[in-house]
Write a structure and sequence with these properties.
Elements lengths: L1 H28 L16 H21 L4 H14 L5 H14 L8 H9 L4 H7 L4 H38 L1
Helix pairs in contact: 1-3, 2-3, 2-7, 4-5, 4-7, 5-6, 6-7
């Protein structure tokens, strides 16, 4: 059990390092001025940009806890992945991370970077999982399990927020 857990952590660490290396390479190869990072326009309300960044971090809060990472790390990884694949959606990014987390221990070739690479080449997540050795039925089952895990994480965050609002309200009424 401990060996499996250590292998999982090592795989997760290697995947993260590979993601960083690929994103750095992609950013270095891109001509100047073509990066698709969102920045505030000169003279624009910077507090709006800060609110957008805070909302983005909040959106990653639940799944980050499930993946044993921080919302900031996930948001930064998403930004780097978007540089490499501008069409990447937040949902597909989260699904790639959750699928790699769920399947990576049993199938070391299924990593976040491998799934993101498949998406970058124009394949769907199911097609990518099949190209990594899963059958169509296994890919469908893995996708459903990932969706349930994401929904559970989002529900936990909503419940935590609801409890926090109730506690603040009780504090103001006293």
């Amino acid at each position: 059990m401990k060996l499996t857990r250590m292998m999982w952590y090592a795989g997760t660490l290697l995947t993260t390092l590979a993601l960083l290396a690929v994103s750095a390479t992609a950013a270095a190869q891109q001509p100047a001025g073509t990066a698709r990072m969102r920045t505030a326009a000169p003279g624009a309300d910077t507090s709006r940009a800060e609110r957008a960044r805070a909302a983005n971090l909040k959106a990653f809060r639940g799944i980050a806890a499930k993946l044993s990472t921080t919302p900031e790390a996930l948001a930064n990884a998403f930004d780097r992945a978007r540089v490499a694949n501008p069409k990447l959606s937040r949902g597909n990014f989260i699904a790639a991370n959750v699928l790699a987390d769920n399947l990576g221990a049993r199938r070391p070739n299924i990593t976040t970077e491998a799934i993101l690479s498949g998406l970058r080449s124009g394949r769907s997540i199911g097609q990518t999982l099949q190209s990594l050795g899963l059958s169509a039925a296994e890919a469908k089952q893995a996708r459903r399990a990932a969706n349930l895990r994401v929904k559970d994480a989002e529900q936990r965050v909503r419940d935590e927020d609801k409890r926090a609002r109730a506690q603040r309200k009780d504090g103001h009424n006293r």
